Amino acid sequence: MIRVLIVDDSALIRDSLAASVAHYSESFIVCGTAENGGAALSWLELHYADLCITDIRMPVMDGLTLIGEINNKYPWMRCMVISSYDDFQYAKQSIQLNALDYIMKPVEDEMLHAALDKASECISRDRNHAAAQLMLNKLPHQRRMIDRWVNQIQTLHVETLPLLIVDTLELLEHWVDGNYPLLAPISNLWLRMMIEELSTNRLQLELEEGTDAGLGDRILTLQQIRSYFRLCSVRRLEEGAYQMVEVMRGVRDQQSIKVISNIIAFINEHYTEQINLQDLADYADMNKNYMCTLFKQETEMTIGNYIVTVRMREARNMLLESSDKIYEIANKVGIEDVNYFSQLFKKHYGLSPLDYKKRMKS
């Protein structure tokens, strides 16, 4: 997700650009607008953006000065210029300030969209390069963590994956040293490295990037960006780890996969309710005992354990994304006894709900 700040002294142009950006792709979010460079810097003191689209001539502070300030204060951001002036000196200064594009007004949608694609590729390339450099420098000293991943994937120990992922996140966060946008690409590189480590086990897997939609607010304050990018990183590490486990289990009978997939879909939809095994067997149109045996064979988990896993995952998300009390979260995931909920959470994640939240938020 690329969060975009639009700066122009014309409200009409700001609104027009915002509409064009928003309608082009769900990958771009217009998170803020400002009428001049000074207002933009005031906004950036409190909020996060990846890309600034700015006019040049504006009162209070012009666009070129703004780009220079952004380069100094917010090095993760990139900028592009829109201007009514076909002026070589302006274009030259923009290039010297590493602006990605210089677009003439009136801005045509096709030209703006091409520039947005270029900006997205550039931001991704820069962050992937920085993450790769960190991996190159840090990875030789992490044999123990690598071996933990290899062992747990090989032995299909999914019950201890959540705590392993928390430990890995803390390691990667230490590597990025406050440059939180690097957590996503470095998590992807970590997963690709693990696939290579497991290639001798004939594990072959193409990881998809997935989406971070819904993990954070459209407008992020600077105080939220650490939690947001940590959550994005956890999402990547979790999805990658569980995909590796699935591939490691080997090729399974297609009919069994369909049955189990239907059961899993039902649980995912009804985890807030009391799920009776006989009702679940009726839904799957099969004998209850056979259903339980098949589910355990195919997932290495009992149905009860899987229901707990879903509830704990959703509870974890609520714990990190909301201000709900522990008992409120317990009730929302279908567990009335808060003490029992806390016991399950600690057994699943290795930490109590409050301790887990402190480690993720500290």
Brief digest:
By secondary structure, this protein is an alpha/beta fold. It has helices spanning 11-24, 37-44, 63-73, 88-96, 109-138, 143-154, 161-176, 183-197, 225-248, 254-270, 277-284, 288-299, 303-321, 326-332, 338-349, 353-361; strands at 2-7, 28-34, 51-54, 78-83, 102-104.
Helix/strand structural class: alpha/beta
Sheet with the most strands, sense and barrel status: 5 strands, parallel
Q: Give me the side-by-side strand order of the main sheet.
A: 2-1-3-4-5
Question: What is the CATH superfamily of the largest domain?
Answer: Response regulator
The CATH class designation of the largest domain is Alpha Beta
Share of residues in helices: 55-70%
Q: What is the strand content? A: 5-15%
**What's the gyration radius in Å?**
24 Å
Mean pLDDT across the residues is 89
Per DSSP, the total helix count is: 16
DSSP strand count = 5
Question: What is the name of the CATH architecture of the largest domain?
Answer: 3-Layer(aba) Sandwich
Overall geometric form: elongated
Count of domains: 3
CATH topology of the largest domain: Rossmann fold
Explain the overall architecture.
With 362 residues, the protein is of the alpha/beta class. β3, α3 and β4 form a beta-alpha-beta unit. α5 crosses α8. The longest helix has 30 residues. 30% of the residues are buried.
Helices and strands, with pairings:
Elements lengths: L1 E6 L3 H14 L3 E7 L2 H8 L6 E4 L8 H11 L4 E6 L4 H9 L5 E3 L4 H30 L4 H12 L6 H16 L6 H15 L27 H24 L5 H17 L6 H8 L3 H12 L3 H19 L4 H7 L5 H12 L3 H9 L1
Helix pairs in contact: 2-3, 5-8, 7-9, 8-9, 13-15
